[in-house]
Specification:
The complex is a heterodimer of chains A (349) and B (316). Chain A has 349 residues and is an alpha+beta fold. Chain A has 8 helices and 20 strands. Chain A folds into 2 domains: 225 residues, P-loop containing nucleotide triphosphate hydrolases (Rossmann fold, 3-Layer(aba) Sandwich); 110 residues, OB fold (Dihydrolipoamide Acetyltransferase, E2P) (Beta Barrel), CATH 2.40.50. Chain A is 24% helix and 36% strand. Chain A has a 6-stranded mixed sheet, with helices on both faces. A 5-stranded antiparallel sheet of chain A has the order 13-12-11-14-20. In chain A, strands 15-19-16-17-18 form a 5-stranded antiparallel sheet, with no helix packed on it. In chain A, strand 11 and strand 12 form a beta hairpin. In chain A, helix 2 crosses helix 3, helix 2 runs parallel beside helix 4 and helix 3 packs across helix 4. The longest helix of chain A is centred in the middle third of the chain and has 18 residues. Chain B has a domain of 163 residues: MetI-like fold (Orthogonal Bundle), CATH 1.10.3720. Chain B contains 14 helices and 4 strands. Chain B is globular, with a radius of gyration of 23 Å. The chains are: A alpha+beta (349), B mainly alpha (316). Chains A and B meet through helix 2 of A and helix 10 and helix 11 of B. Bound molecules: adenosine-5'-triphosphate and magnesium ion. Adenosine-5'-triphosphate (ATP) binds next to strand 2 and helix 1 of chain A.
């Protein structure tokens, strides 16, 4: 049974539509990431789940109950705010203790849990500091501790690790994953860090301009982007225009002077294919011909720029001793049909 | 009105010390070989104005308070603390000063109780209403103090609107005496001074992050707990600076107590006025003004310290 259901949520600010007809179901214990460019409505979505913003249309249910009927203080969610939103007049420990206090936890339990959680985020000796006297990363960890200590069933994390250094970020990622696995907390994570989303999430939701572009496992979204936006947003990609044909042997796409079978159901007509630079290789026959414009050594790999009849392409090859073409050389590039995503032309715009 | 003038000036001085939390470092005045006079020369006009309009009158008032006065001889050029001794010994003066500060304290309390919620409600209002209501709250500041106070006199008189209303509702059998009573003065002064409280609480509310309130809600706090535990402690600086302004203005107010309080219900400012203009005992009037100034400074600085210590983390 789905745990959290967002059904056709829409939020308009005067004339601007921040979240547009957004539907999403989240399973219990799942860690799902919201990805998308700045201003695409990620925070707005979380704020509606938390109850700080009322949607103009749509429904939210949690565990079968209508969440919109509940007040924000009755929803029992844990939230890490993008701006931290710490209580400036309380120490770090008092900040973390606040939620427990509201739940009527006894003094002794409270002190113990606060100390444990502060230790978890690496702030055990900062309990009596005021937020103003802490660095951005320390404040962010207090915000994380404040949300974790109440052990919510649903945790909304709005860029919770954005201000941490690489090492601390990795530790916190592992910690979040551990909590999700062991306690079964459902988490919705907003992040700008794609590798973080890829590493942590069961599924990713790619958003643009308030609309969902694709919901898929990280690998699926990377390998088979639903449209050009997703393909470009998640890592580097080559997007080539072509024509999709349907004949006796099945569906195929023609790009420049080459042709590939299409494995997904795509309507015939003008189309486009997306293929990752590292999935392309130099082939002897049955490929797209072109000329190497540039080759750049990047340590573990070589980056090629190849001019073809279908446009300029980026190719990445491992630096593993194999013979690679030189600049100005005529080459032929190819890839396996299952490594590309084909979409109708309007999706590629 | 000398007393009133010096008090107004002292008000500005004390509030500016509390609102400017971070003192800016003075620019270096040393250039190479010796002192540069440029900064001093540039601030000379300001300093001169300050000296002529504030320091000199204040000093002259202080000196005047040391003179003595006799009915037939006029002002005597002697330098003694007789006037101070007289005021400190006479229970009549005790009563006046006590009344002044009782009224000022009550007005401050009422302004805080009315103004802080008012500012909070105003902030939560939607666009067109907010501006309109703010205008209504600040309205009293746009009207001359005399006409506003006369309006109150019309309302509060024994046949005034308030008493007629109360009697029509059967809440009171006989008209309540508002005119020439402390109650009347407190009501009128509160109305006059509440905008200062609203403005300074408003300023500190502007700095409040609305997400902080949301954070408290999400942790399970009800709206009233959020107000008490989250909002209130953060607007204490605003309430404090508002209180200082209101207290200082209330303690040195002249027009409102003069009209509502009448001749019998004296406060320090009207007392000084009478000594100057009726009794012509200028030295005694000056002494009243100086004592009012000193008491005001002591009370305000003391309260300021107390509150700042109690809420030190929000004042940083
Ligand atoms: N209170 C508001 N009034 C008007 N417009 C708003 C308001 N809050 C957000 N918006 C608009 O809604 C859109 C979505 O905002 P949101 O904060 O959800 O973006 P986001 O995806 O969280 O971006 P970021 O990654 O930068 O945090 C933005 O274009 C923003 O300008
Ligand atoms: Mg955001």
């Amino acid at each position: 049974m789905p745990y959290l259901v967002l059904d056709k949520l829409t939020k308009r600010f005067t004339s601007w539509t921040a979240v547009d007809d957004l539907s999403l179901t989240v399973e219990k214990g799942e860690l799902i990431s919201l990805l998308g460019p700045s201003g695409c409505g990620k925070t707005t979505t979380l704020q509606m789940i938390a109850g700080f913003l009322d949607p103009n249309a749509g429904r939210i249910t949690l565990d079968g109950q209508d969440l919109l009927a509940k007040k924000p203080n009755e929803r029992g969610l844990g939230i890490v705010f993008q701006s931290y939103a710490l209580f400036p007049h309380m120490t770090a420990a008092e900040n973390v203790a606040f939620g427990l206090e509201m739940r009527g936890t006894s003094r002794a339990d409270r002190d113990r849990m606060v100390a444990e959680t502060l230790k978890l985020v690496g702030l055990d000796s900062y309990g009596d500091r005021y937020p103003r006297r802490m660095s951005g990363g320390q404040q962010q960890r207090v915000a994380l501790a404040r949300a974790l200590v109440i052990k919510p069933h649903l945790l909304l994390l709005d860029e919770p690790l954005s201000n941490l250094d690489a090492k601390m970020r990795e530790e916190m990622q592992i910690e979040l994953r551990r909590i999700q696995r062991s306690v079964g907390t459902t988490m919705i994570l907003v992040t700008h860090d794609q590798s973080e989303a890829m590493a942590l999430s069961d599924r990713v939701v790619v958003m643009n301009k308030g609309r969902i572009q694709q919901v898929a496992t990280p690998q699926e979204a990377y390998d088979r982007p639903a449209n050009a936006f997703v393909a470009n947003f998640l890592g580097r990609t080559n997007l080539l225009p072509g024509t999709v044909r349907q004949d006796a042997e099945g569906s195929s796409i023609t790009v420049g002077d080459a042709r590939w079978p299409v494995l997904q159901p795509v309507p015939p007509g003008p189309g486009a294919l997306a293929v990752r630079p590292e999935k392309i290789s130099f082939v002897a026959a049955a490929g797209l011909t072109g000329v190497v414009q540039a080759r750049v050594f990047q340590g573990t790999q070589w980056l090629f720029e190849v001019e073809t009849a279908a446009g300029r392409m980026m190719v990445i090859r491992q630096h593993d001793g194999s013979v690679l073409p030189n600049e100005r050389e005529r080459v032929m590039v190819g890839w396996r049909p299952e490594d590309m995503a084909v979409m109708p032309a309007q999706e590629a715009a | 009105m000398k007393g009133g003038m010096t008090m107004a000036a002292s008000t500005d001085a004390t509030t500016s010390t509390t609102t400017d939390a971070a003192p800016s470092a003075p620019p270096p005045v040393r250039t190479g070989a010796g002192w540069s006079w440029t900064p001093y020369l540039l601030s000379l006009p300001g300093l001169a104005l300050f000296a002529v309009l504030l320091l000199v009158p204040l000093l002259m008032t202080a000196l005047l308070s040391l003179n003595s006065f006799s009915f037939y001889g006029g002002i005597q050029d002697v330098w003694r603390f007789d006037n101070y001794a007289e005021i400190l010994a006479d229970s009549y003066f005790h009563e006046v000063f006590l009344r002044t500060f009782r009224i000022a304290a009550l007005v401050t309390l009422l302004c805080a109780l009315l103004g802080a919620p008012q500012a909070y409600i105003l902030r939560r209002m939607k666009a067109p209403w907010r501006g309109l209501c703010l205008l209504i709250v600040l309205g009293p500041l746009l009207i001359s103090v005399v006409s506003r106070t006369l309006g109150w006199a019309l309302l509060l008189g024994s046949t005034g609107l308030v008493n007629q209303g109360l009697m029509a509702l059967g809440l009171v059998a006989e008209p309540i005496e508002f005119m020439y009573t402390e109650t009347g003065v407190v009501i009128a002064l509160t109305h006059v001074l509440v905008p200062f409280m609203v403005l300074s609480v408003w300023a500190s509310l502007q700095r409040l992050d609305p997400q902080v309130e949301n954070a408290a809600l999400s942790l399970g706090a009800g709206p009233s707990t959020v107000l008490r535990r989250i909002v209130l402690p953060q607007i204490v600086p605003g309430i404090l600076s508002g209180s200082i302004i209101v207290f200082a203005l209330a303690a040195s107010a002249f027009a409102t107590p003069a009209i509502i309080g009448g001749r019998r219900l004296k406060v320090a400012a009207t007392l000084a006025y009478d000594e100057f203009l009726n009794t012509l005992n200028w030295p005694l009037g000056a002494t009243v003004a100086i004592l009012l100034l000193l008491a005001n400074i002591v009370i305000i600085v003391g309260c300021n310290r107390l509150v700042e210590r109690r809420y030190k983390q929000v004042f940083e």
